[in-house]
Amino acid sequence: MRTSVRMNNLAIEWSWLDRGATLIAGTDEVGRGAWAGPVVAGMVAVPPALYQSLPLDLHGIDDSKLLSPKQRLALAPHIEAHVAAWGLGAATSREIASAGFGTAVRLAIRRAYSDLAAKLRRAPDILLTDAVRIPDAPIPAESYNKADQRCLSVAMASILAKVHRDRLMRRFNPIYPGYDFANNKGYGTRKHQEALFHLGPCAIHRRSFRPVIHAAAALLPDTQSTYNPTEAPVASRKPVVPNRDCAAIVASPAQDKKNLQRITAQ
Question: What is the pLDDT of residues 160-193, one digit of tens each?
């Protein structure tokens, strides 16, 4: 079996299969370095048969960061079709600001697990994470460095999470025009940085992140004023649309679209 150059022996998952595991879950989150938008976690449950004989339409799976958008989009539906179940969860930029990024990541993972568990008849035997420890995990969990490049389940989860988050950011683009979210997906490109300092942060910007804090402070009449990262800058030149960030808390693209339409209609 060969998935990619980096994942051609899958020693971590085979060690769990050798110990008797019959259903392995992997999770990964995307959006860590973005200045705007949610952090999204994906999770998949993989049966042993996929490790013994990987279908041809799953060849090429790798860490989502190492694949092109076209490759991720092509692989995502095949992953969904072949795994035992898959789930998605997210934590909004407001939750990131109020709870801290580490807590928000664990919250997104717990939401992804809830989505996954609702589709399964039984719990997975083990949950593999990419360097994220989950002290209150609902099932046994183990953390491995670079698991998204060493574990089939984690790589699959990273692809589903990335495809979903990119879709969300494209849908936010017309709601918050000017920031180029459809192209930069909330990451700190030059165009995004220029828009941030010109327009100020919008409702889905991560107000605890330093570039966003600096941009907000630049628009304040008194830059020495105390800045609360969970609130909109008082002198922002762009009106903030409240509550739309909660559109990121979804379990599937269909739910995502339905929630976004409901929220934007308010």
Answer: 999 999 999 999 999 999 999 999 999 999 999 9
Cβ neighbours for 117, distance < 8 A, ≥ 6 positions apart: 87, 123, 138
Residues in the chain, total: 266
Task: Count Cβ neighbours within 10 Å for each residue of 110-131 and write b for 16 or more, e otherwise.
Answer: bbbbebbbeeeeebbbbbbbbe
Q: Which residues pair with 129 in a beta bridge?
A: 27, 143
CA distance 77 to 80: 5
Q: Which amino acid is located at 17 in the chain? A: L
Per residue in 181-203, is it b (16+ CB within 10 Å) or e — as a string?
A: beebbbbbeeebeebbeebbbbb
Q: How far is CA 222 from the centre of its chain?
A: 36
Contact between 23 and 122 under an 8 Å Cβ cutoff? The reply is yes
Q: At CA 157, angle to CA 256 and CA 206, rounded to 5? A: 55
59-72: pLDDT as tens digits? 999 999 999 999 99
**Number of Cα atoms under 13 Å in the Cβ half of residue 144:** 21
Rounded to two decimals, what is the model's pTM?
A: 0.83
Per the rule left: phi > 0, alpha: psi between -120 and 50, beta: everything else, 181 is alpha
Q: Which two tokens stand for residue 85?
A: 């179940």
Separation CA 133–CA 219 (nearest Å): 38
Residue 24 phi, psi (nearest 5): -110, 130
